Amino acid sequence: MKPSQPFSDLKAIYNAAIKRVDPYAMIQSRVTLDNNTLKIRLDNQEKSLALEKFKTIYVLGAGKATAPMAKAIEEILGPKLSGGLISVKKGHTDTLNNIEIIEAGHPVPDENSRSAAQQIIDIAAKADETTLFINLISGGGSALLACPGEYEGASITLSDKQKTTQALLACGAEINEINRVRKQLSGIKGGKLARHMYPATSINLILSDVVGDDLSAIASGPTAPDFTTFAQTIGIVKKYGLSSILPPRVAKIFESDRMQQTTNDTISDDLIFSKVDNILLGNNLSALNAARQQAGILGYNTLVLSSRITGEAREIALVFYGMAQDIALGNLPPQPPVCVLAGGETTVTLKGNGKGGRNQEMALSFLQALEAAPAGIENIFFLSGATDGNDGPTDAAGAFASQAVLEAGKKAALDINKYLGNNDSYTYFDQAGYLFRPGPTNTNVCDLQILIVT
Question: Is the per-residue pLDDT at 266 higher than 60?
Answer without folding.
Answer: no
